[in-house]
What we know:
The mean pLDDT is about 80. Helix 1 runs antiparallel to helix 2 (about 80-90). By secondary structure, the protein is α+β, with helices and mostly antiparallel strands. The strands form two sheets. It has a six-stranded antiparallel beta sheet with strand order 6-7-4-1-5-8, with helices on both faces. Helix content is about 35%, strand content about 20%.
Amino acid sequence: MGLRNLTMQLINLFSGILCARFRSVAIFPLPGPVKAEENLTRFIFESNTTKKNQLKTQSFRPRKIDKQLSVYRTGNLSREIILRIGHCFIEKRRLDGKLLLGMVDLPANAISQVNQGIFLKRTLLPHPRHANIHFPPNNSPVDNERWNSIAKALIEKSNKPSFISTSE
Length: 168
């Protein structure tokens, strides 16, 4: 990781913390690795990832560049606090300017139940409650189908998505 990239991550972290501080957002990390009984939240920014309030596989497909899917450890947090994390630590820093449309919850144990080479790893950036679901490489059409299969399995294990109104 280059010095510029690290500097930008630190600036983003501190700007998120300032936003959170003034909005009373839980910014403290949970200790240790992600536990199977924890709740994870995936934030939704793309309208093309849902259809008639149902998730499409795109909502649980990882970024192509690093093969990771961003989630947040949100157990024991209220919906209001979870939305504030989404607004302060993700929406405000998106380069494409997309707004937070909703969120979907997933039990952490779904990762091990789905298996297929995916695993969950805690990170502290961009937020202390952040984690990534790591996907296997995608180097061929067969791998692409595998990613779709994993995404469908995660959707089946997740709760119904919760969409936010423009007033929240």
